[in-house]
Amino acid sequence: MSTATEHVSRLVTTAVNGFIATVGISHGPLNLVTTDLLRELNEAFSAVSTMVDIRCVILHGSQSRAFCAGSDIKEFARIREQASEKKILFEDMVLRQLARLPMPTIAAIDGAALGGGLELALACDLRVARHGVAMGLTESRLGGLAGSGSVRLTRLVGPARAKLMLFTGETIDCAQALSWGLVDRVTDDGTALDAALELAGIIAARGPVSNRLAKELVDAAQDFPLDAGLSMSTVALQKIFDSRDLHEGVDAFFSKRPPSFTGH
To answer: Which domains are seen in the chain, by residue range?
Structure first.
């Protein structure tokens, strides 16, 4: 699969090249989260979720200075009385949709990821950051709260470190984020997007059926009791042995050639 396509809306660009889709945010220098941006991200994630040939998705901040610097607080006064209806529930739905994409996802963080911006990155499976960028859930500085971010951050770094970040609203650098497990790779040379594309290429070369099932099992390990997760793993392994990809992988191994997976 070598075709390249691109869909450009006002604030979000979705591009497909081979087995990799990239979703870029282009909303001014800070990529602030607004209702309009959430609406376009929702449309982009909905479209990507149906692309059966896509094996990895990258979320990035395009050419903006920040990956995403959080919510546009100028909107707060307008939505104060109907915050759940106008922001909280819709934003949570968009983040859930990103987190539940069936294929692996990577956040490429080339600029600051703050507040709601870090929450977007936390909803991805993996995070690749450029050296020198700042990350934090900074809402407490304004008396605010990172809702879903508090939960997802805790699962990555543990309760004490999550509380430290939430209570102080302070940012951390890439070295600390890497040591805590908040990001998975830090690049000193080139952009995080370039590094994410390289990682996505490796992922896309692996078995797409196995990677989608692996994502389900890892997520289940956090959401379900052990026995339920193990039962899911039994079903998943049967799907693997029923797939043509496994047999292609075995044939390729003995033939000493790269496998040609089809996702079936």
So the answer is: 4-205 (3.90.226.10), 208-255 (1.10.12)
